[in-house]
Specification:
Strand order of the largest sheet: 2-6-1-7-8
CATH superfamily: P-loop containing nucleotide triphosphate hydrolases
Structural class: alpha/beta
Number of strands: 8
Distance between the termini: 20 Å
Helix content: 40-55%
Order of helices and strands: EHEHHEEEHHEHEHHEH
Shape: globular
Length: 221
């Protein structure tokens, strides 16, 4: 039976980096659910569509062919490599609006469930443990102080920290208050604060949880 490790948390908490490294260590498939919403947002912006248009975005979500290439970080949208394009600040802001649309979430959640049913995965997002895989073998809620998250994201996109901080606050508000699958910590998720910690420290702390909760230290190193 496939093992699912769910990592949720707010923007720029370090979910993608940690989930990717964890998947590599465990030999699992890494699934970046946020990349799916970003790819959809990119398509909407290219088509000059309003990311808040519920009907058009739901249609787009159903029509989109989004692939997360196994063993790499490549994201394909309708067979085009959009790995770099989906990381812009504009796409990030649009993705948050797209992700708030119930029909879009339902369409993409079905795709995510299909992947997780077939293979061992580390999947990260904002509603993986609470909605997509409520019975995940291990749930992590990865967080960091707002100032730390703004610093990380500004460095990632080479942007102004104050501007990025404002965008993160807006995204946090949208993610936590949306009607469909809001960002929330699942009751049985383990809270991990990455503020002031190195990537290695966070990774090791989660690996200890994996050994204790899933393998009892016998299967994975």
């Amino acid at each position: 039976m496939a093992i699912v490790i769910a990592i949720d948390g707010p923007a720029a908490a370090g979910k993608s980096t940690i989930a990717r490294r964890l998947a590599d260590r465990l030999g699992f498939t890494y699934i970046d659910s946020g990349a799916m919403y970003r790819a959809l947002a990119l398509w909407a912006l290219r088509e000059k569509l309003d990311p808040a248009d519920m009907h058009r975005m739901e249609q787009l979500a159903m029509a989109a062919w989004i692939e997360l290439e196994r063993g790499t970080s490549r994201v394909l949208l309708n067979s085009e490599d959009v790995t770099e394009a989906i990381r812009s600040v504009d796409v990030s802001a649009a993705a948050s609006m797209v992700a708030a649309i119930p029909g879009v979430r339902r369409a993409l959640v079905e795709k995510q469930k299909a992947i997780g049913a077939q293979e061992n995965v580390v999947m990260e997002g904002r509603d993986i443990g609470s909605v997509v895989f409520p019975n995940a073998d291990l749930k992590i809620f990865l967080d960091a102080q707002p100032e730390e998250r703004a610093r990380r994201r500004a460095a990632e996109v080479n942007g102004d920290r104050d501007s990025v901080a404002s965008q993160i606050r807006e995204r946090d508000e949208r993610d936590r208050t949306r009607a469909e699958a809001p960002l929330t910590q699942a009751p049985d998720a383990v809270y991990v604060d990455s503020t002031g910690k190195s990537i290695e420290e966070v990774e090791d702390s989660i690996l200890r949880l994996v050994r204790a909760r899933i393998t009892n230290g016998k299967e994975f190193s």
